[in-house]
Amino acid sequence: MRYRNRAVYFASLAMVLAMLAVAVYFLFFDSVAPRNFWDVCLALAVPGVVTWTLIRVGLTPYVEWGKGCITVCNPFFTYRASLDSVRLLGREGRGGAFKIEGIGVVLPWAMTRSIFDGKRANAARRDLRHAVLASKNGDPALTSSRKARFGWFDLLIVPFAAALVWAFLP
What we know:
Layout: E1 2-3, H1 6-29, H2 37-59, E2 62-66, E3 69-73, E4 77-82, E5 86-88, E6 98-100, E7 104-106, H3 118-134, E8 145-148, H4 158-167
Antiparallel strand pairs: 1-2, 2-3, 3-4, 4-8, 5-6, 6-7
Helix pairs in contact: 1-2, 2-4
């Protein structure tokens, strides 16, 4: 099963499309069109960093489990482990957190509490809990891992970084 917070996903998608429209407006339709490299960087800085944040926080996080394995994709890290190496933690301030042997405590970003997606999140947590409790033996070849996430969308912060460089030039 795969869970993604739909409300956050669709709101982020709509805002990413709005930021794309803002970037196109700044580049092509604004009364003062960019004339050099720095003008382009300044025009793309805010839409780029907002889009990067929305992609990291709203579009890419998910939790997937099945066939003796769980994958948690948080904004900056992806965790992968067999279901039998997962120990569920109580709700004392952690929500749907669990502990993975060899990694530690993992809080699935996609399953955090949401006003708009609460029933689906609770059902997904319940299904995950049943899958973890029912798992007797997972894939012995699968070791627990944590990997840093990088993607094409990380290039969206380059104009913002260039604008910061421009701001502090003498």
